[in-house]
Amino acid sequence: MAGLTTLRSTEIMTSSPILILGGAGKTGRRVATQLGARGVAFRLASRSSEPRIDWYDESTWSTAVHGTDTAYLAPPVDPAGLDAAGRFVRQAAGDGLRRVVLLSGRGVGSPGREFAVYDGQLALEEAVKGSGLDWTILQPAWFMQNFSEAWLRDYVQAGQLRLSAGEGAEAWIDTDDVGDVATEALLEDRHLGQSYALSGPRPLTLTQVAAGLTAATGRRVDYLPLDPDEHVTEMVGFGVPRPEAEALRDLFEVIRNHRSEYVSDGVGRVLGRQPRDFTDWARATAAKGAWTAWTSPAHTS
Q1: Dist CA 195 CA 174 (whole Å)
Q2: Mean of the pLDDT values across residues 23-43?
Q3: In this model, does residue 201 exceed pLDDT 80?
Q4: How many structural domains is the chain composed of?
Q5: Is residue 275 part of a domain?
Q6: Phi then psi dihedrals of residue 54, to 5 deg
Q7: Residue 83 lies inside a defined structural domain of this protein
């Protein structure tokens, strides 16, 4: 990794490593890869890193920020973690941080799309904007990689997407596109003070997603819409803590109420190209063996 990295004339020159908060997550890993490919110094911060950061231990915050002036922040998703991240940002501004790129969520703060599940993210966005730091906010749609790298992978391998999204659609986005946008936002000064809503090129219902996964894998995948309370009960039965299960139900409420059926232009504005389509992503992901182990459905209809 480089020490002092001289970038293109439109980019920021920094002599300190970029701090990646949430470096083990889907977007943080991709930002780290992109920065490394460009020869830009970075440092991952987590509970197991040195120095470490724990969102629920304020004594770790200052040491995590020490020696850096720019950070990528992928915050925790639970309400307490989001509140802690807001307090961290305000403290970090006094500890020498001068710039932050925040990962938020699409629809947060948008008129006509108010949902209580977004309240914590909205408060964090406001904390970032009021911190005195230079900032950029990224608001992506649901990640395609939830079906291959996260909890929905088990559903795909079981052949049943048992979810409470109703017949609503979402403009799913490739996390690689989010990582590319985040990297540009960290390095180019034209993104200061900007909020970018990010999505894929078209909204898809879960029925369409299941059909795309079926075509990509050669194995049948169905979407089975659940009642929201039934969905919570089922997730709790699988071992998901009830608060997390209820939060997921509330996130699906946004899709269920047809409030995500729109395309956002942030990828094109930042990268000058179109975002990756779900069909192309699913085909390439299947070719890499993401869903090689198939199981029997946990439930049958």
Answers
A1: 19
A2: 93
A3: yes
A4: 1
A5: no
A6: -130, 120
A7: yes
